[in-house]
Amino acid sequence: MARIVIVGCGFGALTAVRALRRRQPDAELVLVAPRPELVYYASLIWVPTGLRRGAALAVDVTRFLARQRVEYRATRASGLADAGRSLLTDAGPIANDGLIIASGPRFLKQLPGIEHSLSPCAGIAAAEAIRARLAAMDGGHIAVGFGANPAEPTAVRGGPMFELLLGIDTWLRRQHRRERFTLTFFNASSQPGQRLGERAVARLLSEMHRRGIVTRLGHKILGFEADRVRTEGGDIAADLILFMPGLTGSDWLGASGLPLSAGGFVQGDAHCRVPGHERVYVVGDAGSYPGPDWLPKQGHQADLQARAAAANLVAELHGKPARTPFKAELVCIVDTLDGGVLVQRTPTRMRVHASPLWHWAKRGFEWQYLRAYR
Q: Among 246, 274, 303, which residue terminates a domain?
């Protein structure tokens, strides 16, 4: 009976569990993560404005793992040995016949003064801290932006910051307090969010203009102070700075011996295999993959990669070649609390559609997605 080890407890990891169990019912599955908890990061943007509470977005997956007959190990990965057949952890080595790495990314916190900023995707505590800061403000300047990984420009997650910015604007208007605040969006690129496509970026920037949101674009970010964002184009006054740093790979990967990209992610091929390492796969934000330059780092893409990795790993365990490529697809709803913009992108299709109904669709998708794990 094959033993397959999955590292992580996010979207890609749990989708891999489900896909593996369907394809290999008798496999011994082991999941390694510090906590048996899925944080639904996509809805953290709603915590600052009170639509969600953090506790509702942290799902204990203990019962899900039991239903899937998965052995859970409460520890952290620290490296690999024996060409990947042994996962090193803080609690000792774990042998495997196949390995799927889905340990996610970490933030690059290199800008001076970054401790003066908050990011909702840093976790539940950070999202709740933003809520507390907003509730205590009677007016002032709020600056919202995101950065990138200079060594791997595609390692960026800007969508949640567009959503947070537009959601705060809607929230303040509902409270009849918008006129007391200046909202500024800043980014080093003159066309931020290009992964979403030119039409989507134009739509979002037009919406900011319509709402009276100031844009400061095309100037390198130099750092942060308690009351300002420093850029090459001048300072931006800020009583509250909301900033999403660029991404890099998990810290344990440096000791893994795996091939890493320039940005610090595990290199994966079109089948999610790690080159030079038999039956070792990477999915989601832990990896760097071939494909279009808009290939997203988001839960939906992680799910697609996890399904491909599971299919290929099981094939290899049965002595067959890995032939299932992952599908490259960006699907997101840029939420505004009172509506949203659907962005769907594949190598052959681009769709951008705004509607008040997308807000409710996003809420419905959250319920449906988490239903499997609750």
A: 246
